[in-house]
Automatic annotation (TrEMBL), chains A, B:
Name assigned to this protein: Histidinol dehydrogenase
Biochemical pathway: Amino-acid biosynthesis; L-histidine biosynthesis; L-histidine from 5-phospho-alpha-D-ribose 1-diphosphate: step 9/9
Catalyzed chemical reaction(s): L-histidinol + 2 NAD(+) + H2O = L-histidine + 2 NADH + 3 H(+)
Keyword terms, alphabetized: Amino-acid biosynthesis, Histidine biosynthesis, Metal-binding, NAD, Oxidoreductase, Zinc
Length: 432, 432
């Protein structure tokens, strides 16, 4: 864990180390992934069956076994406790409501020259959702990835999920059901991404693939990008907690550890103006670590990537937060909104003492798929916008063309594009 | 040129060929580009000077020579004819006005459970604009790439442009001046992209790089992606013109050729319901080709990639257009808006007989940087949205947390993330 203090001479060098900290080493699997994609393109479903037998520890005998049936979903979800289903329903309803509010309006702009300009939003036809199997099979992630697509109006939402030993997580199936997933396939890895991008006899191709995955899945998404859209490749998670000394050090410690428990590459940073408070939080982190089931992981993250930063005032904290551009930002100050007004770069913010970041992971409403590793400088969280695209349009009358056409002809000729110029000039009143 | 007819048995096979036509072979320059990026990261400005001497045919003696001064811009633009400057001004004003209308509003959403949810748009701090040198140095492209950034509120817009022999295109400088470019550097290729992404002593790093370039520039953008944002890598341009027999075949022919003259990989497709009209347009294409300065290029594009598609009715034309998802769509039908209402996938549409696509390349207002190669299925043209990002936020009161917190705890525990659950549970009224 790094202890920084803006009033000390070594601060800039230490902070630069924090900014440049590479928290992840990506495995080089490009060649293996290219071979898998080529195999799925060449042999379709047959390749999916063979690759699933090889990697997932069960042998589907025919293509139909890959598709999860409605009856299987019913059976799997029947055993889920009612309280847990109610929590899933509350989460789904709140996430759907927030994303519905994101839906943008079309544009129609009358124009002084007599043209009409417009912009129209339309949903993608089909989206693929990758869901990891095993330990990271998170139902909350299914809701966060699928619901924005449903709200956008996407007709087909095809989910792929590896099923180690043929088994699926019932809560993941329940989440898919609630989030409007239209098809579920028991297939994972690069082969699932290849099937979604190129299509097979049993899995129709989609237009965009979203959702987290391991190095193979990430490499496959990069390789099919261009043929289909992809979401950004998520890095390790991070949080910046900005808190003054009036907070309970234990609460702040647990908030930091909620980030650190994701994996050893996660990063949790406290910014405060009180050295004693920073020390109290650090002590509370150690105490909590001892009692957490995932304490080994969280402790490793905290020791390797954690930091406390002591600032002289809250304006300094704003400047440092903007340089960190954190994925998650928790603001535990007396006037959280006022302070947050000075923040230009953050994926998602959680304002006030009663707003731990974990609330946003599950039930608050905004998306939990967020830009990591300082990319909040230029990127945004998943949203309805990721499942819509824009078509701009222009409608011109004879008079409208006459008003602005000559300028187009002049510029086309200056650029040496005579057919461009001619297509306008031939329609002008004075044309030969 | 391919002649297709939906009423003939071979249609589906022919149309599939058209859909899958790879119109571009990308040069493999990844290793060379990786070496250039490493050199710029290691030696900064010194590497920029050396690489510029090697690739651009002039030898800047010191770093200061890379930056284009205000006096140089004044001197270079002084000789531009007033009519051309007026055309540039008209284009800039119309592009700016349309993009200003795109600016989205922030969101603040009160919530039945007593929380407040929000979403805030903020501009990127700094953007890099790559402008190709030589034949493709298009002033219109400078306006289309820089103005959306200025409208979004980006403070720094740094343009890089190679200067073969030290020379720059005056009209490109004039466009940069009008579009709010804040810095111009005489540097190009992968080395310019590396400088924008990683920064040197004389060029500060940016957050996103946009603009077209050759294979080296495209590969460099791919390699720095993640550290900075990039725009999509543009493929060859294409147009679909939908026209009935009441149109002038010559006008349609010139519209098709305006696309074909871009380069040999461009694609122009006519969809019509009248075989005689299709033949008349094809004949007019040949006649126009003979008189066009870029006739050799346009002819090559038309022969290799051009097509006429004969349809039985206009609904069929809609379905085929949606499958083509064209970058540009020109609709020359009696009720262009009505027909366009059925189009789900297109980059930009031009409605009516008085609206040649070239109008949109220069002066209409919407952006001319558009998704190519069927990517309009999931991608959009350049816009203000490319220079903004979103921060979502949640504000919770003690009562709000109490209302939805238990559901978060239940889901966190189901996912095995106990610190997540604890960070909420400790704040609930019944907590120990």
């Amino acid at each position: 864990m790094m202890r920084l203090d803006t009033s000390e001479p070594g601060f800039e060098a230490g902070f630069a180390t924090l900014l440049d900290m590479a928290r992840e080493t990506t495995a080089q699997v490009d060649d293996a992934v290219a071979a898998i994609i080529a195999e799925v393109r060449a042999r379709g479903d047959e390749a999916l069956l063979a690759l699933t037998s090889r990697f997932d520890g069960w042998a589907p005998l025919q293509t139909a076994a890959l598709r999860v049936t409605a009856a299987e979903i019913e059976a799997a979800t029947a055993g889920i406790p009612a309280g847990l289903l109610a929590a899933l329903d509350l989460a789904a309803a709140r996430i759907e409501r927030f994303h519905a509010a994101q839906r943008p309006a079309d544009l129609e702009l009358p124009d002084p020259a007599g043209l009409t300009l417009g912009m129209r939003w339309t949903p993608l036809d089909a989206v693929g959702l990758y869901v990891p199997g095993g330990k990271a099979a998170y139902p909350s992630s299914v809701l966060m990835n699928a619901l924005p697509a449903r709200v956008a109006g996407v007709a087909r939402i095809a989910m792929v999920v590896p099923s180690p030993g043929g088994q699926l997580n019932p809560l993941v199936l329940a989440a898919a059901q609630r989030a409007g997933v239209t098809e579920i396939y028991r297939v994972g890895g690069a082969q699932a991404v290849a099937a979604l991008a190129h299509g097979t006899a049993s899995i129709a191709p989609v237009d965009r693939i979203v959702g987290p995955g391991n190095a193979y899945v990430a490499a496959a998404k990069r390789q099919v990008f261009g043929r289909v859209g992809i979401d950004s490749i998520a890095g390790p998670s991070e949080v910046v907690v900005v808190a003054d000394a009036s907070n309970d050090p234990r609460l702040v410690a647990v908030d930091l550890l909620a980030q650190a428990e994701h994996d050893e590459s996660a990063q949790a940073i406290l910014i405060t103006d009180d050295a004693g408070f920073a020390a109290a939080v650090a002590a509370a982190v150690e105490a909590e670590l001892a009692t957490l089931p995932r304490g080994a992981i969280a402790g490793e993250s905290w020791r390797r990537h954690g930091a406390t930063i002591l600032v002289r005032d809250w304006a300094e904290a704003q400047a440092l937060t903007n340089r960190l551009a954190p994925e998650h930002l928790q603001v535990m100050l007396p006037d959280p909104r006022g302070w947050f007004a000075g923040i230009r770069h953050a994926g998602a913010a959680f304002l006030g003492r009663w707003c731990p970041e974990a609330l946003g992971d599950y039930v608050a409403g905004p998306n939990h798929v967020l830009p990591t590793g300082r990319t909040a400088r230029f990127a945004s969280g998943l949203s309805v916008f990721d499942f819509l695209k824009r078509t701009t349009w222009v409608e011109a009358s004879e008079a409208g063309l006459a008003a602005i056409g000559p300028a187009a002809v002049a510029l086309a000729e200056a650029e040496g594009l005579q057919a461009h110029g001619r297509s306008v000039a031939l329609r002008l009143p004075a044309a030969p």
